[in-house]
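Follow-up to my earlier ticket, as requested here are the two runs.
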Amino acid sequence: MGDATRRWFAIAGGVLLVLAAAAALLTREPPSPAAGSPGSAPGEAGSSVTRQEMERLRADLEFERLARRALAEEVALLRRALEADRAAGSEWAAAASARESPAESEPTPAIAEASTGEKPGASGFDAPALVTAGLAELDAQRLRERWEAHQLEKLELSNLALREDWPRKRLRRESFALEGALRAELGDEWDAYLYATGKENRLRVNEVLADSAASAAGFEKGDLILSYDRERIYDPGELRRNSAACSTGSYVAVEVIRDGNVDTLRVPCGPLGALVDHVKRPPVAP
């Protein structure tokens, strides 16, 4: 923007000089012709000089006009680019917030598992924490490299959305697809990936409602839900979707971690009737 401003002042100065010259030419008296010049009418030579100078002045004015128009167009382009950059930044922030809480817009059943967990942790990948939790150092490093590649993929997606002026819904949809592809690729290692990136990866039973399926099955406060109907569970939205997708009247297996051991409880398909917290816990080996 600094270069454009300097160009503007330079052009403005040139315009003022040209206008001053025009004013001087228009107000001065034309020179008298030399006495006794043969074949010359009075004032003819002076009129000829004035016309030449006026033609030059018109050409200079036209050049300045075109230069000012080009500068105005350049400033307009820079302003539009700045506005687009700000809008894209807002869209990306909204999409990132949606990725961190994907189940916000989903309807909650009448008797549902409610989440009262903490907010996602800071960005980054803590490979040493995975090693401390029991993961092999080579596996922790491999997951970190995949995390770095995923960050580049997200940056490229954001850049493409900005250049092609994507609507917010498309950016959000593409971001979900990118995250889903990574989860499918990692499989059960998604648990360790969430833990290393500071995200909650476990549901903790905070309250078991009386006369509920969870109460009848023997759920206890503090149980950590690991899987529902043989599928790993990492957030409350997944538990709601899975409990609604099974066959009504059938029984499903729910794995829970209790006192460091994995237990399997059988419950009828449908809401458990338990209140859960979304918490971060060390990953469990597949």
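Run two:
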Amino acid sequence: MLRKFLLASVLFPLALTAGGAMAADHAESPGADADPAADLADVFLFVSPENPRRMVAAITFGGRPLPRSRIDATFYCDPRVIYELNIARANAAGVFTSIPAVKVVARFGTSVTTGRCGLQLQNVPGGGGTFAGPIEAVISSTTGLRAFAGLRNDPFFFDAEGYNGMIAAFAGAPPPGGFVVSSFGLGSRPRRDSFANRNVSAIVFEMDIDALAPVSGGSRPKLQVWATTARRAN
């Protein structure tokens, strides 16, 4: 049964000529909030700053933004949750069909001898097959693609105080001259991040660009990316 769907991004062509759309998913309904291991937060996809022939994908889940009091102290290792990163390629006309060309599957398990949590990745473009290793450590595929899973500082940036100030300002009459940035309490404290020092569980892995978005007609296709989680019944 699908537990969560998050449309993450319609990426630029890989020639890096245009911007992309972004989405985030925090502060959930009670039902989703009660299952943090299956509760997606964000999906990130970007060209590796270390190797322009690789893309880096990240799926984050769990995590609790302010003003909630709880801060995740441990990684959510649930062997019954299946994580999928779905990647669709635009056709020759630049149109998406929303049918994934690639499905990267991630799941966790625990060692019967040590009890330590481990990550398994399947169908990573250019990965050379399924590969696995312990969390909180960089693991590699047979082709040298790297992956990591563990608890990290939430990379999502959001000024919740400024946003709440903006909503409150709209409830009243506009100030003389209309609304400006200062009307919402923004701008006086640059880079005020309500997610700073908030932990989130993350799965991060590299993909080979040529396998992910092969060149056709002299250019690479645009990519549409979304993530889902499902929970096994047993």
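The only thing I checked on run two: Helices lie at 30-33, 160-170, 209-212. Let me know what else you need.
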